[in-house]
Amino acid sequence: MTQTEQSRKFLDPRTISMLSDYRLLSRLIVDGFFLGHHRGPRNAFSLEYNKHRDYYPGDPLKLVDWKLYGKTDRYFVRQYEEETNLQAWLVMDISKSMAYQGEKGAVSKMQYASYLAAALAYLLLDQRDLVGMIQFDDKPRKVILPSSRKNQLNLILKELQGMQEGAVSQFEEAARFAASRIKKRGMVILFSDLLAKPEQIERTLKLFVCQGNDLLLFHVLTHEELRFPFRKFGFFQDLETRERVLLHPEYLHDEYTGHIKEYLEKVKQICSKLKVSYQMLETTAPYDKALAAFLKLRSRLN
Amino acid sequence: MGFAAPLFLLGLAALVIPFLLLFTKASSSRITQFSSVEFLRTITEHASRTMEWKRLLLLAVRVLAILTLAAAFALPFTSRSCRLSLWGAGPAKNVVIFLDNSLSMSAEEKNSSLLDQARSRAEAVVRENADQGAAFSVYTFHKKVRPVMTDEEDVSKVLAGLGEIKASEAASDFGLLIQFLTRQFGQKPALPEEIWVFSDFSMPSDGPMKLMEDYQRQTDPLRTLHWIPVRPLSFQNFWPREMVLPPRPFLRQARENLTVLFDSRGYEPGAEVKLDLWVENTKTASRMAVITESGKGSVTFEHTFPAGGRYPIRIESPEDSLVRDNRLHAIAEVGQPLELLVVEEGVYEYPFQNPYYYVSQALESFGGVAGRDSWVDMARIPSISLRDLQLEDYDVIMVADNAKLEVRDLAQLRAYLEGGGSVIFALGPAFSERNGGDALAHFLGGKLGAPQTAERETSSFSLSGIDYRHRLLGVFEEGRQGDLSRVPFRSFVPFTQEADKAGEVILWFESRWPALVEKKEGSGKLFLWTSSLNQEWTSFPKDPLYVPFIFELLKYAAFGASVSDAQLHPGDNVVFDSGREAPAFEQVMVRSPKGEQVTLFGEDGAPPPPYALETAGVFEWVGVRGKEMVRQLAVCNTDAAESAPFYAALETLGVNDSKAGEEDNRAPESSQRRFFYRPFFYLLAGLLLLEAWLANRFYKPQWV
Asked: Which residue of A has its CA nearest to B46?
């Protein structure tokens, strides 16, 4: 087994779900992803010189270029181009439907999203980016304001670890409120199963995009939701509303898969229209896809 | 429409099964948690709607299948009356009249018979209902229920039909009537129905009335039943005036038992009542009957009649009160069969060593030794019991392979012979010259030598020079029953007759030793069969020829009348000849050797159709012409080897000629039920196939 293969096993949700320490698992996911890549995970950043300008009273004296004063007898101030830190919001949908695990999945959609969010938080904070988190179901439940403090990762990981499924998802309303909390432009990483009508989804995504945020959407779905492998006749109970529907899944299989394909196409179209980076994730899939999508966006933002 | 087996409609209760299946299946179905049903519902809205109607379609098919199944097994039928009512052009109601035309209804009261009284009352019923646009069905009943007309709306035709009804010779059978009513009218009628039964209810108990009351209770409100008793007032007219005795194939005369049962009033239990039997206006016997605690009494007369004749009989009572008050009566006819006594040695290791076994089997094949109307009453006794019997009670005595007869037994047999009896004496391995001794030689009128046995196992003795002109052998002429000369005999006893007592040798062996000898002894006949009647010395008992041989021998020994139709073969038709100038029979009842009865009817003065003999054996037929009954026998060849291909052909072709007669006995077409259960079965098969196809298509392996 090569090193890359070894590392990839830490990207498997089944393996990750065995760990209870979010700090460790977030590191494992990130390191596992970057192991074997040429580019290192830690991108250094600094204040870079831009130009000189005349000194005006009031300017801090420490900015005065004394060497130049010695040469020219005039006061110049060195001006640097500030490389501001990225502000990233992890927006977690914790509605009851996210607690759906399916029969084949090792983790629920929520768990899958939480592991991924933990890894991203680790990665972002490691880059000194500001990371905040919002959890919502029918309304925002937890808000952690963006920060790059050392303790921020602990705070986020603790919240992710203790994340419980909430109530019925009021996707649009909750997202509207969440969007209102994002004051500064930055990156919004949305984890959701998007179990809403396409028009609702579009309206919601617009809320984030219109504020000038770069939106990365992780659409988390289970194998069962995508493939609908059920065979036995019976009731299907809604996790959120507890409603039951009697149907014969085997007969509906073809129609369901056709419809889900159509639905996913629509979501993709919406994302494309709104310039939202979209990544559909199946809960059985490794995390490398998700991280690659993130880094792609991150590099674009740089 | 009605149902011949409405009990099967209870199967409709099974209709709940598909519903139960649907609901219980649905309610007990597994629950699968899913992230969002709303989403699922939206997606599958169309599909669910499609599935719903498919489920309903499947449910409908299943319900229809169960309906069809129940209906098919309930045997639906239509009758003309139903069809009429369905098309709206039918009568307002059905009036069904049953007229008892049994013999007792011919009893006269006030210069008119009970049948006439019943007829006039029935006519009144017809006229009364004629204005209401009723359809009339008229049936007569005695031992059979016969339709005169059905669903007739023309009153004049109904009245004419009633006028043509005549009394029969038979007794009435109310059980049969109730059975017919239940079968024919058991279902809920399509129209309001009135059933009128006119009868004297002449039965020795209250049974008929009770049966009718029960039946009336069970009928539905649409049906009205009227039971009209037509009762005589005087006693002597009540009895049958004529009695016809069944022929006895073996006997020239027969003793008949007549049992009279009656009700009385005003008599103390234990009182004795005198009844007289009059035959041909001659008082022949008087008997005392004891009144029982229930007021009933019975008495049995015995009288010897020439067989097959018609004799007016009358039973009278000098007791005035009995004459006036008697309510019920009956006559039971009991025939006098041929009494055959088989004297056996008494000790046989195996039953099949006993000649009685073979003789009884042979006679049974004619239906002769079992049942009420049997021709032969066989008795068997060991030799030792012979001296205790009144041999005069027996018509024929058979002594077969018996070595234990003593001198006094032989003397007793000789006395029996001289008195007019017949003895058939057969030999066998148990017999020897020493056992029989001089007494037996004297009895037989000749000398018995040592048994002769064929030298090799493969060789045998056979009969030769058979004189088919002899009455006993006539049936074997031209090999119609089979070839007697090919019957093998391994042993026989040479019999040398005394010159002065020589009898007629009927059958000879090839070696010119007699096989069957007939000797006259006084008024009786002695027959000597020098071989065995069991299989000890011959395989004759296994040969099909054995059966007719025993039959003919017994008949011949008992001075029986010749049977005219003895030359018939399976497949031949029996033509019911009523005589040169006599009118044709109205109906003929044929009874096969198996006991099956078929009645054939003539139409418009034409004789009944011929009856095809489908099996070997003796067929008995009774031709009825007015009140006259003629009984005849038709003997069909019993050679199984010859008949087997015919049976096989019948079975292969599914042909049963006797059914032609049954067809004639059915009700007219208009009143027949038209069963149409076949389409239901076809529909059921189609529905089941459709259900399987739909279930497979909709649900694949699942059942909802």
From this structure: A255
Report the mean per-residue pLDDT for chain B.
72
Closest residue on chain A to B32 (Cα) = A236
Comparing CB atoms, the residue among B30, B32, B698 nearest residue A251 is B698
Q: Do B32 and A233 touch (CB under 8 A)?
A: no
Chain-chain contact of B51 with A252 (C-beta, under 8 angstroms):
yes
- Closest by CA to A195, choosing from A110, A253, A133, A115, is A110
Token couple for B283: 């008082």
Q: Where are the alpha helices (DSSP H) in B326-406?
A: 355-364
Q: Are strands B422-426 and B524-529 parallel, antiparallel or unpaired?
A: parallel
Quote the minimal CA–CA distance from A227 to chain B in Å.
13
Instruction: Write the secondary structure of B253-314 as one string of H (helix), E (strand) and C (coil).
Output: EEEEEEEEEEECCCCCCCCEEEEEEEECCEEEEEEEEECCCCCEEEEEEEEEEECCCEEEEE
Helices (H), B304-449: 320-325, 355-364, 407-418, 433-444
Report yes or no: A93 and A192 within 8 Å, Cβ to Cβ.
Answer: yes
Of the candidate ranges B226-240, B445-459, B682-696, the one whose mean pLDDT is the lowest: B226-240
CA distance B507 to B498: 18
Tell whether B28 is within 8 A of chain A (Cβ).
Answer: no
Q: A119 in helix, strand or coil?
A: helix
The distance of A240 to chain B (nearest Cα, Å) reads: 7
Give residue A35's pLDDT.
57
A12-26, A155-169, A185-199: which has the minimum mean pLDDT?
A: A12-26
**Cβ–Cβ gap B35/A252 under 8 Å:** no
The angle at the Cα of B630, spanning B169 to B308, to the nearest 5 degrees, equals: 95
Q: Is B19 on the interface with A (CB under 8 A)?
A: no
Whether the Cβ atoms of residue B153 and residue B133 lie closer than 8 Å to each other: yes
Rounded-to-integer distance, Cα B174 and Cα B239, Å: 18
Cα of B686 to nearest chain A Cα, Å: 25
In single-letter form, the type of residue at position A295 comes to L
CA distances from B283 to B98, B236, B298, B301 (A): 36, 14, 19, 12
Specify the pLDDT at position B283.
76
Q: Among A35-44, A148-157, B2-11, B536-545, which stretch is predicted with the lowest mean pLDDT?
A: A35-44
Say if the Cβ atoms of B44 and A256 lie within 8 Å: yes
Task: Please name the residue of chain B whose CA is at the shortest distance from the CA of residue A233.
Answer: B29
Residue A266: how many CA atoms within 13 Å on its side-chain side? Answer: 15
Q: State the pLDDT confidence band at B23, using cuts at 50, 70 and 90.
A: low
Contact predicate B90/B191, CB 8 Å? yes
Q: Which residues pair with B321 in a beta bridge?
A: none
Choose from A259-263, B238-242, B467-471 the range with maximum mean pLDDT. Answer: A259-263
pTM of this structure: 0.38
Nearest-CA distance B698 → chain A (Å): 7
Considering only CA atoms, which of B108, B326, B114, B317 is closest in space to residue B199? B114
Q: pLDDT digit string (tens) for A96-138?
A: 888 888 887 788 898 888 888 888 888 888 777 888 998 888 7
In terms of Cα–Cα distance, which of B387, B140, B107 is closest to B232? B107
Top mean pLDDT of A77-86, B192-201, B254-263, B408-417 is at: B408-417
- What's the whole-number mean pLDDT along residues B646-654? 35
CB contact under 8 A, A245 and B36: no
3-state class (DSSP) for residue B364 = helix
Q: How far apart are CA B443 and CA B526, in angstroms?
A: 10
Q: B574 falls in which pLDDT band (50, 70, 90)?
A: confident
Using the beta-carbon criterion (under 8 Å), do A255 and B43 form an inter-chain contact? yes
Alpha carbon of B215: minimum distance to chain A alpha carbons (Å):
54
Q: Is A104 on the interface with B (CB under 8 A)?
A: no
